[in-house]
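Page 42, continued from yesterday. The earlier attempt failed because a stray header line got pasted into the input along with the sequence. Redoing it now with the clean sequence only.
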Amino acid sequence: MRFLGFELGARTPDENTIRAFRNRLIEAGAFEALFQAFDQHLRSAGYLPMGGQIVDASLVQAPKQRNTEDEKAAVKEGKSAEEIWPDEPNKAAQKDTSTRWTLKIGG
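This time it went through. Structure tokens are written below.
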């Protein structure tokens, strides 16, 4: 919401509205050019856009994960936090193994 300039509690478009808008952009032949410009804007701000679909997401600074190489490999394999840290429930509760990252380049 903050990324798009919406105020907390303000009315926001739902999934159907976003899809209809996307379809109209495609029909008008503007979809690719718009998102190429958007990617360029992100790059100029120091972000490296990755492929995928984001419908509702916010870029937030998160604490650095201090995982061992074995723990990192387990996360990449798709294991849950409970599987990786079975004897440390408090640690497992603090880990989000389903998250994905974006890179901020520079300042």
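Notes: The chain has two domains: 1-59, 62-99.
Reminder to self: strip header lines before submitting.
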